[in-house]
Amino acid sequence: MELLRKWLGHPEDIYNLLRFKMGGYRAVMPRMDTHHTGSWPPLHCSVPTCYRYLNQTSRSFAAVIQALDGELRNAVCIFYLVLRALDTVEDDMSIPLDVKVPMLQEFRSHLYQPDWKYTESKEKDRQVLEDFPTISMEFRNLSKVYQDVISDICHKMGVGMAEFLEKKVDSLREWDKYCHYVAGLVGIGLSRLFSASELEDSIVGQDTDLANSMGLFLQKTNIIRDYLEDQLEGREFWPREVWSRYAKKLSDLAKPENIDVAVQCLNELITNALHHVPDVLTYLSRLKNQSVFNFCAIPQVMAVATLAACYNNQQVFRGVVKIRKGQAVTLMMDATNIQAVKAIIYQYVEEIYQKIPSTDPSSNKTQQVIASIRAMSLPGSPVASRHHYSPIYLSCAMLLAALSWQYLSTLSKATEEYVQAGNN
């Protein structure tokens, strides 16, 4: 029963999910902090509001954040909302550059200003800026060790975002640098929070190279998949060093007559992204807390599945390529230990391998990186594995994943309808 309680959470958690399904909404409350004090973490009236914003602004991470253990849950929730506010500023094309640049560079200072907020954003996630005082108050209620991490990452990310507002991504080195600023730093910050919570060993937070790779892999996957959406919104994130070998302008890749070279460009970028997978496997092998493992592993296996769907696929330049909901639920249910993750990754890189065209300019490089991933994914490979997850533990994990996915999907749909109604 203790394992069941740990995975399903405090009865308040279950009640929240059931109440939402019956037509009402109640923010998910923090669970008992048994790791440090054995008592309930401080609960302020603004905590439910923060979790409501989390569910409104995140489709990918809301469920797994709310499944984290102890005080780490609140720290990661606030970390996400702070960075979502920062990202909303970056994305808002209505903010003039002379206002946006210093705003990004100085954003960290607003964490310590109780009344600061920004009410002129046109972005869909503008509520995190309009009610930033609630978020910043909960930031200041966190332990100092968490505040220091969030403040440091917020500052570095804001400076990096400001740098790339005024220049395009040209070289592959700059692509890595941009992805570091917007996602690698997130991986580094999360890793430091994991270690600060003492749920994970100190090496997890200290090895910034592996943590950076975790973020880069997710960001590159999003950039690759979102080519057409970014083009339609006037944004360009594919590195010129690569696409200029296939077209005069990045937008030319969407033209029907250029589809063959467009797919070759796509395959080259996917090959580049796959080089981060060995680091991902090494990182995941170090994790010992089940909730942290799920939090980290689920987005990574989703990314591998997404790249497998995008590889050599003309649809990337014609519409949206997404993994099916049923496929996503299966991944959430299965990715609960390192051996399972290795098997999932092996499956999807094999899928890519089978689709490699013999005439593709990157075919040799793609085969080489897949060979290195295979070597780490096979049973008995050098990546350390953990075997302490019992069958009942995994069964509870599957149940939580299924509930979380249904909960998140329903809430996302409701939020979209609300935002759409507001815009009308």
TrEMBL record:
It holds the Pfam family SQS_PSY. It catalyses: 2 (2E,6E)-farnesyl diphosphate = presqualene diphosphate + diphosphate; 2 (2E,6E)-farnesyl diphosphate + NADPH + H(+) = squalene + 2 diphosphate + NADP(+); 2 (2E,6E)-farnesyl diphosphate + NADH + H(+) = squalene + 2 diphosphate + NAD(+); presqualene diphosphate + NADPH + H(+) = squalene + diphosphate + NADP(+). GO terms for cellular component: endoplasmic reticulum membrane. Its EC number is 2.5.1.21. GO terms for biological process: cholesterol biosynthetic process; farnesyl diphosphate metabolic process. CDD domains: Trans_IPPS_HH. Keywords: Cholesterol metabolism, Endoplasmic reticulum, Lipid biosynthesis, Lipid metabolism, Magnesium, Membrane, Metal-binding, NAD, NADP, Steroid metabolism, Sterol metabolism, Transferase, Transmembrane, Transmembrane helix. It is a multi-pass membrane protein. It is an enzyme of class 2 (transferase). It is found in: Endoplasmic reticulum membrane. Pathway: Terpene metabolism; lanosterol biosynthesis; lanosterol from farnesyl diphosphate: step 1/3. Its cofactor is Mg(2+). InterPro entries: Isoprenoid_synthase_dom_sf, Squ/phyt_synthse, Squal_synth-like, Squalene/phytoene_synthase_CS, Trans_IPPS_euk-type, Trans_IPPS_HH. GO terms for molecular function: D-glucose transmembrane transporter activity; metal ion binding; squalene synthase [NAD(P)H] activity. Transmembrane segments: none annotated. PANTHER family: FARNESYL-DIPHOSPHATE FARNESYLTRANSFERASE (PTHR11626), SQUALENE SYNTHASE (PTHR11626:SF2). Belongs to the phytoene/squalene synthase family. Catalyzes the condensation of 2 farnesyl pyrophosphate (FPP) moieties to form squalene. Proceeds in two distinct steps. In the first half-reaction, two molecules of FPP react to form the stable presqualene diphosphate intermediate (PSQPP), with concomitant release of a proton and a molecule of inorganic diphosphate. In the second half-reaction, PSQPP undergoes heterolysis, isomerization, and reduction with NADPH or NADH to form squalene. It is the first committed enzyme of the sterol biosynthesis pathway. This is Squalene synthase.
